[in-house]
């Protein structure tokens, strides 16, 4: 007899006779270990939470599509960008960075902006933020940086001393700190913010010719932000405000959309540009490399199950397709390993086989076994390579293109160390009202720092970016700009 579709069953499909009362030895006796349904329910409940992401733990997601609106085939052979009008399904996850899974949406923090394109050649993940730059430019500093954003190991409280101590000793962070403390530090919603690939990537066309590129998603809803006061008020009243806003907008048919643009730099310009184009703490001037339209992203379908889709979605900048390659950006190079490794730990070695991550393209490889292998595991097919049994083989035409490298194997820093020009330019672009709010936000945060030494060291960075910038912060903190600057 088959199980009625309305019957409650165990995980192995057997019907459950009683889901209200556990088996006991008599009405008052102890519970019996033979009640396998009870044991399964409790054991599964204990394991319902996968470890939350170390960063980007709190997030929201949606399905949609990407449509090419401009011919860029002369720059990249990526199939999903091959012709105007071509549509590719995608999934997007927006997130805060530093907070835990239950933290508030409307805090001052960068926002993750991760896009998974389900292309005909496999998945392509574009894992960025709502800012064009980042705090650091070498992955070796990332664990230390994130530790400063987390909780103190003794008090278990956020630690402004650690935050500003690290930033003051890492002047490359100044550009991103200025953005974070500006009006754009608290987006009004996920729909009202831009997205960026942030890193430099390489596009390669069918002839093997390459260019360096940067991605820019421009929101069609317009930029809207929250003040510190409003953000704090919403955090107390509705900590899931951004999550709710995205879901409800899509549910009522108000589909958010973004235009995708790229900046394109000839390969040879990387050696002569006034900033290192692979330094993720810097931007390329749009006067030097104007935005070129690529396509349009629309989000039009909410997840059917948050855990299965948003929580189990895994993104990695190393998930690439032919025609799109990494650059020697030191931060990107570290992320190529770290993101996929985090998912192998968090979700499992077979995370790419889950429905939300599984590519539309067929997968042929020799990876076998591992926890939660829930497909045929390759069946009886050949399981090693090279082989003479007709198994999948590499396609030389899809090798990544070469770029020249030189020098000694050593722990090397970037050659360019101008951390002040772009931060100062950004400050001077702001209106007087925006500068006032920027300084107020910085002063409010730095007042919590207990050591004047840290405050004075950071004030020097602000002053070097723009004397007015440093002076106003110093005055707000009741300090003087150090004489040495």
UniProtKB/TrEMBL annotation:
Task: Tell me what reaction this enzyme catalyses.
Answer: 2 H2O2 = O2 + 2 H2O
Q: Where is the composition biased (Polar residues)?
A: 1-25, 398-411
Domain Catalase core as annotated: residue spans: 9-393
EC number annotated for this UniProt entry: 1.11.1.6
* PANTHER family xref list: CATALASE
Q: Which family does it belong to?
A: Belongs to the catalase family.
Protein's name according to its UniProt entry: Catalase
Originating organism: Bacillus haynesii
